[in-house]
Amino acid sequence: MKKKIFLYFVSAAFLLCVIFYGLMLWVLRANYTDEIITSIKSDAYTIQSVLKNNQTDDYTSLLNDVFKSKIDNGIRITLIDKAGFILYDSHNNHTTMENHSDREEFKAAIEGEIGQAIRFSTTVRAQMVYVAIPFSNVYHDISVIRTSYPLTSIYSFSNHTVNYIIVVFGIGIILSYLWALRLSGYILKPIRLITNSIKRILAGYNGGNIEYHSDDELGELCRYFNEVNSYNIKKMDRLMGSNNNLSSILSSILNSVMVLDRNKKLVFCNKSAEQFLGASFTEMQKKPFIELLRDYEINKFIDDFYNDKKTPIKEIVINGSVLRFNLYSNEGMFNEFKDSIVLVIQDVTEIRKIERIRKDFVTNVTHELKTPLTSIKGYIELLKDREELDNATKQKFFEIIEIEANRLTDLINDLLLLSDVENNKGRIEMLKVNDIIGEVIAIMDNISSEKGIELICYYGDEATIFGDKNRFKQMMINLIDNAIKYTNTGGEVRISTIKDEEKILITVEDDGIGIDKKHINRLFERFYRTDTSRSRTEGGTGLGLAIVKHIVKNFEGSIKIESEVDVGSRFTVIIPLKPV
After folding, report:
1. Among the residues of 253-320, which ranges form H helices?
2. Degrees (nearest 5) of the Cα angle 545, 362, 409?
3. Looking at the structure, do residues 271 and 132 belong to the same domain, yes or no?
4. What is the domain-level CATH number for residue 340?
5. Nearest by Cα to 297 from 316, 311, 283, 279
6. Domain identity same for 73 and 19
7. How far is CA 317 from CA 274, 347, 359, 398, in A?
8. Tell me, what's the pLDDT at 531?
9. Which tens digits make up the pLDDT trace of 295-320?
10. Does residue 446 share a domain with residue 361?
């Protein structure tokens, strides 16, 4: 660019010099020619005056004497009669000269005008300027007086002047060269600054402000560029922030998010998708999507979506997991991927499991509520319909109704308690484990004594935990009550605590009937019973261990079961000593 500007300026300067040189040369020659014409015209009139005052026809003696200095300086004098014959010529033998009747200046003079002409003279072999005036006198045969002067002197003068002009022009071209360098640098500086800034922007960096202060158009261009650059920086910052937020959101989403183009090629995916497919995004880009998920049903599902442009949802079981495939048209979510679709894969295995548990729970609750209500209703109808019943029978029926009503009350209370412990952790307070277990033993001692079961406690070092006191007591009551129910008369229930630096272990152990291993994994499910008839006889609701499990979770602890049929069971609760 700089070279072009430089060449433009130098070429323009050279062209102007050439034009100026031509004009100057033309003006000089024109002015000099005019001066010669004026001078030789004056000489012609002087000759006219001399001839009128002299009657001699010896023109050679007369004119060579009077006009010797002018003739010597190059002025040529020619006298011509009316027929065009030469009567006298200061530079040539007039007798040998050709007739001049056809000369332009002669014709004008014969007509009574002043004739002028510039042409090459074949007589003197030079470019000449001619002036001819009419002449009339009774003593002379002269009709035209012509003076002329060679233009070689003009060319000599011009050539002499040209040398000076060339020097001046050379200086002008040098100055124009220097000016072109300066001007091209001045013009190109802001352009270079803008170009470098754009290169930085294209490379992903901040273009920065252009430091160029001027009141001309280039300065205005730089100011506008800075404004546009500042606006773009703010816009890019917002876009980067949005992209970072989107990337953070997509990275934190547990669902697999993938974008597929029209050819079902992966063009974007989040971290969850990489983990789901077991490969990095770079590796997955090299393969068709059908090779990533080798499932005919899924690929047909995607093809159908492209054809119908619906927003389908499909659940497919893969390797035992229930996966929900959601397809969406890419409308504004990923603008850089036109005509693409967004595939979201959600693992709904746990959701379906929870739904199944909830459904089973509703069924069980309905059944558990219906059983005592049916019993109560049946005995009430018997009492109404059979008035002849004796008092002892009626009293027995009333006791059964009371038992079923209490059972119904216990079930409702346990349901409310389970809902409460599932939804919140309760109060957070500092608890001394051994003291609270002592309180629970005092409560449960009468129950165990009635059944002939001994409660034995082994206290380790006192431990302090954090949580809801009433819930901790409820947990211990449920565990001990459960052990008493499934221990035969004469048996033992042992409660022990062991503390280390990080946790406390609370064990409730019995020598009762034990639990078959096939039941252990389901013991903490709602309404699950290993022996339905015995559980109902003992008055259990089937929610005790489910409540225990959720209370242990509230303390951020864990529980494990060890059991052997006809030997006994051991429930161990592990609770961290740190604040919850």
Report:
1. 271-277, 281-285, 289-292, 296-308
2. 60
3. no
4. 3.30.450.20
5. 316
6. yes
7. 19, 10, 20, 54
8. 61
9. 777 777 777 777 775 657 777 777 77
10. no
Radius of gyration of the CA atoms of the chain, in A: 63
Q: Name the residue with tokens 């489910």.
A: 546
The values of phi and psi at residue 282, to 5°, are -60, -40
Beta strands in 340-447 (DSSP E): 341-347, 429-432
Helices (H), 82-151: 104-110
Mind giving me the DSSP string for 476-532? HHHHHHHHHHTS-TT-EEEEEEEE-SSEEEEEEEE-SS---HHHHTTTTSTT--SSH
Tell me the whole-structure pTM to 2 decimals: 0.43
User: How far is the C-alpha of 480 from the C-alpha of 447, rounded, in Å?
Assistant: 10
The average pLDDT across 382-398 equals 75
What would the pLDDT profile of 24-56 be if each residue is shown by its tens digit?
777 777 788 888 888 888 888 888 888 888 877
pLDDT tens digits for range 145-201: 889 888 876 666 556 666 677 777 778 777 777 776 776 666 767 777 777 777 777
Q: How confident is the model at residue 534 (pLDDT cuts 50, 70, 90)?
A: very low
Whether residue 219 lies inside any domain: the answer is no
In percent, the amount of the chain with pLDDT more than 70 equals 81
- Cα 440 to Cα 479: distance, rounded to the nearest angstrom: 11
Is 199 inside a domain boundary?
no
Residue 195 is assigned to a structural domain of this protein = no
Chain segment 455-491, per-residue pLDDT in tens: 999 988 888 888 888 888 888 988 998 889 889 888 8
d(CA 250, CA 257): 7
Domain limit, last residue, from 421, 448, 467: 421
Does residue 337 surpass a pLDDT of 70? Answer: no
Q: What is the pLDDT of residues 195-236, one digit of tens each?
A: 777 777 777 666 667 776 677 777 777 777 777 777 777 777
**Same domain membership, residue 435 and residue 384:** no
Question: Whole-angstrom Cα distance, residue 331 to residue 339?
Answer: 9
Residue 414 lies in domain: 353-421
In a domain, 175, yes or no: no
Q: What torsion do the CA atoms of 285, 287, 292, 293 make, to the nearest 10 degrees?
A: 110
Written as six digits, the tokens of 284 are: 């997955």
Count of domains for the chain:
4
Tokens representing 571? Answer: 């429930």
Q: Mean per-residue pLDDT for 106-121?
A: 86
Q: Is residue 507 a contact partner of residue 559, using CB atoms and an 8 Å limit?
A: no
Identify whether the C-beta of residue 79 lies closer than 8 Å to the C-beta of residue 87: yes
